[in-house]
Amino acid sequence: MRPAPFSTVTASKRARWAITIGATVVSTYALDALATVAGLLLVRSQVFRGLELGPVLLLLAATYVLWGVGLRANLTANLTLLEQTGTSTNALSKAAYDLARRATSSQRRLRLAAGIGYVGTELAKEVPYYVGAFGVAIASDAISSNEALVFLAGTNLGAAAYEYGLARLTRVVLRHSQETSPAPRRERRDPGRRHPRRSIPTHMPPQAPSPMLLGTRCDGKRFGAETHVPFPRDEQALIELDLND
Fold first, then answer.
1. Which one, of 158, 163, 160, 162, lies nearest residue 43 by Cα?
2. How far apart, in whole angstroms, are the C-alpha atoms of residue 167 and residue 76?
3. CA torsion 154→156→157→160, rounded to 10°?
4. Where are the beta strands (DSSP E) in 42-144?
5. Which candidate, 70, 88, 71, places its Cα nearest to that of 79?
6. How confident is the model at residue 200 (pLDDT cuts 50, 70, 90)?
7. Which of 68, 111, 219, 222 sits between 20 and 30 A of 155, alpha carbons compared?
8. How many C-beta atoms surround the C-beta of residue 31 within 10 A?
9. Residue 61 in contact with residue 153, Cβ under 8 Å?
10. Phi, psi angle pair for 215, to nearest 5°
11. How much of the chain exceeds pLDDT 70, in percent?
12. Does the reported pTM lie above 0.85?
């Protein structure tokens, strides 16, 4: 099998990177929009209005747990996507994966590098929410610090839902691509082409007669049985066994 030309390999790498960058941009904007809307809706619902700082912090911690569950599901799906297609919904994760592949072939280290890049990107996305929420709370009296924390809790809920939904979508796409991928083609026999046939021998070479195993019973009569022990062809093996006590 001839190796693929360098131009084909380069084009394939560029296509994977183009898909990855496009998916990263789309997923970033979709995540930001969903998380922001969820945070605003939670603040405007006034469900947690009047709570003290302690319960609000517990609420925020609980939403981070949910966000972590969704993030883990999407991280697993992203690793599978990287290993099967070479693309990702996170450009930094793919970059870390490709760099690690140049240094090691360990699957564990490759997955670790991709995971660090993915989680690092998602944590960095949290910074604008904190800056925006507490910046507004400090600069104006429109919202309080507790409402800023509730807003962050809402963004975590929206991010958790997005991460889990993206993980499910990634698995569905991978499963569909595997089901619709063409099966390996089998080699067909050309009826017009002569194929070598295995010759069947019509003449069997002569074989030596089977030796006889003879014995003498107590009454003096002999008995015998044909054996299948190989003996030289030009010898007649006859074994006499005396079974008398």
1. 158
2. 8
3. 160
4. none
5. 88
6. low
7. 111
8. 18
9. no
10. -140, 165
11. 69
12. no
